[in-house]
Amino acid sequence: MTVAPTLFTIGYEKLLPEPLVHELGAAGVQRVIDVRFRPQSRRPGMSKTRLGDLLAEHGVRYEHRRALGTPADLRALYRAGRVAEAHAAFAAHVEAHSGRDLDALAAELPKAAATALLCLEADPRVCHRCVLVDRLRRRLGGLEVVDL
């Protein structure tokens, strides 16, 4: 019997770097996949290099997957509060431009260390992470998702 993989998601919007690491550690996350198109942040410690270094200090592997991020034109829809429209546009975008990246991630998850998708938004319902989760569930039946 095959056990369905679990995928975690987390947004750092309301977290500082150390509480983020604590939250990931408490969940047993061993790998973070940053799904921001541009892994930069105004919040100290949350940009790609510094965040990757901090996670590594705590035994968590960091990966950035730009292809699973939201391009600027679609981020504008999210910022304008047009979430349903943004979700639909991002779903079409990611399937058209990054379908192979989604296929690869879906193939990895059953064998991978406990993995979390990371982005900014605290609420996954207003973040493109929920679209990625939906697309991964279509590829990988039984995928369990835990939003931290």
Structural notes for this entry:
This protein is of the alpha/beta class. It has one domain (6-147): 3-Layer(aba) Sandwich (Cobalt-precorrin-4 Transmethylase, domain 1), CATH 3.40.1010. The chain contains 5 helices and 5 strands, in the order E-H-E-H-E-H-H-E-H-E. It has helices spanning 17-27, 48-57, 72-79, 83-108, 129-139, and strands at residues 6-11, 31-34, 61-64, 115-119, 144-147. It has a 5-stranded parallel sheet, sandwiched between helices. Strand 2 (31-34), helix 2 and strand 3 form a beta-alpha-beta unit. Helix 3 crosses helix 4 (83-108) and helix 4 (83-108) packs across helix 5 (129-139). The chain starts with 5 loop residues before the first strand and ends with a strand.
Nutshell version of this structure?
The protein is built from five helices and five strands.
What is the domain total for the residues?
A: 1
**Mass-distribution shape:** globular
* Corresponding CATH architecture: 3-Layer(aba) Sandwich
Unreliable stretches (pLDDT < 50, length at least 5) are none
Q: What's the total number of strands?
A: 5
| Percent of residues in β-strands | 15-25%
Task: Give the biggest sheet.
Answer: 5 strands, parallel
Figure out the total of helices.
Answer: 5
CATH topology, by name, is: Cobalt-precorrin-4 Transmethylase, domain 1
**Order of the strands making up the biggest sheet:** 3-2-4-1-5
| Class of secondary structure makeup | alpha/beta
C-alpha-based Rg, rounded: 15 Å
Average pLDDT number: 95
